[in-house]
Amino acid sequence: MKLLIDRVRPYVANGKLKGKKAVVISPAAEGPSACGPLIEMFRMSFDYLEVKFTGKILAQADERGEIKDNHEVLKNAYDLGASF
């Protein structure tokens, strides 16, 4: 998270990210219920950057490529992307 803030901090001064939209996508072995603190950290960072937090896609996954079989998560991701 610190790396993200360090990298985007210059954009706070010039306002180039102000009004942009952001989505958080996070697979976790523990599932979506374990992502609360992560989402809150991103939400606070987006507020600092004046970026609009527009949604999140959270899924349970242990291995690379496992999400391909989770049709509900894929549909949610598609619907979120289509809403822009």
SSE inventory with pairings:
Elements: H1 2-14, E1 21-28, H2 36-49, E2 52-60, H3 71-82
Parallel strand pairs: 1-2
Structural key phrases:
single chain; 84 residues; alpha+beta; Rossmann fold; two-stranded parallel ribbon; 3 helices; 2 strands
- Please tell me the total number of domains: 1
Helical stretch tally: 3
Task: Summarize the biggest pleated sheet.
Answer: 2 strands, parallel
What's the shape?
Answer: globular
CATH architecture label = 3-Layer(aba) Sandwich
Helix content: 40-55%
- Please report which band the strand proportion falls in: under 5%, 5-15%, 15-25%, 25-35%, 35-45% or over 45%: 15-25%
Structural class: alpha+beta
Give the helices and strands as they follow along the chain. Answer: HEHEH
Number of separate strands: 2
Give Rg in angstroms. Answer: 14 Å
The largest sheet has its strands arranged as: 1-2
**CA distance, first residue to last residue:** 26 Å
Unreliable parts: none
| CATH top level label | Alpha Beta
Instruction: Return the average pLDDT rounded to an integer.
Output: 89
Describe this structure as you would to a colleague.
The protein has helices at residues 2-14, 36-49, 71-82, and strands spanning 21-28, 52-60. The chain is of the alpha+beta class and 84 residues long. The chain has a single domain, classed as 3-Layer(aba) Sandwich (Rossmann fold). A two-stranded parallel ribbon has the order 1-2. Helix 2 (36-49) links the parallel strand 1 and strand 2.
